[in-house]
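I hope you will forgive my troubling you with a question about protein structure. I am sending you one protein, given as its amino acid sequence and as whole-number tokens for its backbone shapes. Thank you for your consideration; the sequence and its tokens are set out here:
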Amino acid sequence: MEVYENEPFQLSATDVAGLRLVVGGNLARHMEGWLVRRLIGHIKLPSGEVLHIRSRKCTAASTLTWAAYCDPSLASLRFLGNVDYLGGAGDLAAVAARLFAHELLRAASTNGLARHYERRFVVASAVRGRIDFSRMARNGGQLVPTPSVVWERTPNTPENRFLAAALKIVAADEVMSQACVAELPRLHSLLAGVAPHVEPTLLAGVSPLSRNARHLETAVALGRLLVRGAQLDEGVTTIGAAFLINIELLFERTVAQGFREAGAPSIQKCPVRFRETRPERTLTRAMELDLFVTQSPHGALVVDAKYKTAISSSNLQQMVTYCYLTGSRRAFLVVPAGHVPLATYKFAGPGVTEIVVCVVELNTDATDVDGWRRASRAMVASVLS
């Protein structure tokens, strides 16, 4: 079943309950049925049907390179170049799985898997490595067979175990396993004997790979994308239940990334504080605006990313409130290109300095990292000009 994010569709009560367990508050009731907000990917429903959630604002290929542009832990995906050659308009998970399979097999064919020396205890008729005299003593001093300590080069490295975990996700998922059915036997053979394990530091991408595993960097980044998409980083234990990416979060990160690259002084997730007074006490609370540009040719600017196809009056009220609380007189709503009419809204009252809210576009159809960089630069230029 194919649907589009933020567009209504029909589901049975049982499937709605199962879907809610996976997506939580991103599932909303609509007068014409149900809709999923912010997420794209697929979910295995209790009925056995697979719900494919796509976006009209970007393709699967553009989403993967989009993640590579704005998520530092996926930065090595830039080496993939343009990924449209794998059918970028298809299912997001299928494209990610095919990329993972192709990249892992390519890297392994040139440099093999990462290996390291591992200490092992063996018992053999001939001495191998260093004799383990303590074990020999416990065995009554018998010389044959001889207990020894040896160092062997094995593929049991953190990187390989992480790749094996990603492969397990691919093999267990109906959509991903079908997408790379021809490559699965070779992948299983390649990682045979390597126990799947998700190392937290590898999942977070906070530390570089070991020297002899750097040729696997792009494959590990794709594995990171697969593990996160399967929601294992959120504690989900049912492999194959879903593969989801928060597209709204990518949009917000891209807007912030564009201003950082432009060198514009800005604060991401800037807190806007207010007071809540109750009979018994007064509380200080805060709202967060997506981006506050502290210096520009027009002074301070409020920038808010809206991955939407329409601007509502509540969006405009939000911008006016942010301007009032920050002292800014200009705000910008950044929307996906081609889905929202460009417009300028002006708010003024007696004795009040005019507040201007402008709608600007961000192109979301790039299929390589350079394309996303150009799109973000064009968006920032529209704001600063």
Observations:
- The mean pLDDT is 85.
- The first strand starts at residue 2 and ends at 4.
- The two ends are 44 Å apart (CA to CA).
- The CA atoms of residues 61 and 85 lie 9 Å apart.
